């Protein structure tokens, strides 16, 4: 078994910085976002005599049941990946001994571990079960940036490449990059319009504001805004962490002009100029054309890249209350 204990902020930050995970949701700043939203944040170190991993756990209080969430964690040293199941077993033991299992009715985890049937079966034997809904994305669409600009363009589909080149010849399409807090409302207006058109429940304005404010303090968040004739048509919130630029939130309104193609190609160019290694466009759907995010998926994939699939979202019940949550989410709550 591994030793699990609380860890100070600096050691936590340093471990993340040295190991550069493919998600930013275990980064210290994301925990601060969750705190601003009124949630409990627990940061634990995983030790095998020395520090070999960290895990940031979020405590959610919800009408459907209080639960712990692991968002793309734990982060562990590469040489300890083969001990992943034992590490999770040690974390569960810590939750039970520290009374967290009495404060919350279950653990919901999107583990940062690539899809692996053997590991999944071992976790199910531990008592995990597939969750009725996801907590955060179960995959990433990632484009490598350590290539020439010509190659980055040529990786795009013929459709995307045509529209990117077309957009570059249209001087009236302008792209702004900003970390000005006063520009948040431009994004929020576009995002609200998108949610009404696509009929989905958007992230709260407060979450997006807090996320931008906290990451922007250290020059780790920027809005990229696409406009024509002083009207904004598209926007992306990009988080800079772990050698990557993360496309975490986006919004646009319909136009026949290729503003969004220009926007994302300029993001790719800018990330490359900053010597970042990856453009992580976050999650995609693997379902067919009827899925609400099928169009967005095709848009992301059109820039080129590869799919990285993680283990499915898993639940670990701490009490019988969990099963009320499970039934409610599975049969009554709408979720894509």
Count of the separate structural domains: 2
Mean of pLDDT: 96
CATH fold call of the largest domain: Aminopeptidase
What is the distance, rounded to the nearest whole angstrom, between the alpha carbons of the first and last residues? 38 Å
Our Rg estimate from Cα atoms comes to: 21 Å
According to DSSP, the number of beta strands is 15
> CATH H level of the largest domain: which superfamily?
Gcn5-related N-acetyltransferase (GNAT)
CATH class of the largest domain: Alpha Beta
- The share of residues in helices is 25-40%
What does this structure look like?
- By secondary structure, the protein is an alpha+beta fold.
- It has two domains: 3-138 and 310-331, Aminopeptidase (3-Layer(aba) Sandwich); 140-309, Gcn5-related N-acetyltransferase (GNAT) (Aminopeptidase), CATH 3.40.630.
- The chain has twelve helices and 15 strands.
- Strands 1, 2, 3, 4, 5, 6, 7 and 15 form an eight-stranded mixed beta sheet that branches.
- The protein is globular and about 60 Å long.
- The two termini are 38 Å apart.
